[in-house]
Amino acid sequence: MAKDSGQATVSSRVYEILRPYAEGIALTPETHLSDDLNIDSIELVEVGVALEKEFSNKRFTITGLKSCPTVQDLVKLVEQTVAAEQVQSV
């Protein structure tokens, strides 16, 4: 995957990370991570590690991840984290 951090790319990269948890469920912005995808706390840590690897070692705390009930919320968290890192590096 390309390491571009454009909004559409961020969203598609998050969806790719979540796809293995979907098992026949269509991922939408409203898909609930725990209720629809059955992601438990250990799997949420795995998602966080995958996000950190995918987004050049950006840090995603378990508290931040737990504050994201839906796919859309998770995409927003990643976008904000990537944007914050870009501002700090300027």
Automatic annotation (TrEMBL):
> What's the superkingdom here?
Bacteria
Q: Which InterPro entries match?
A: ACP-like_sf, PP-bd_ACP, Ppantetheine_attach_site
Pfam short name (any one):
PP-binding
Which PROSITE patterns does the protein's record reference? CARRIER, PHOSPHOPANTETHEINE
Keyword list, A-Z: Phosphopantetheine, Phosphoprotein
Carrier domain location is 4-82
Name this polypeptide is given: Phosphopantetheine-binding protein
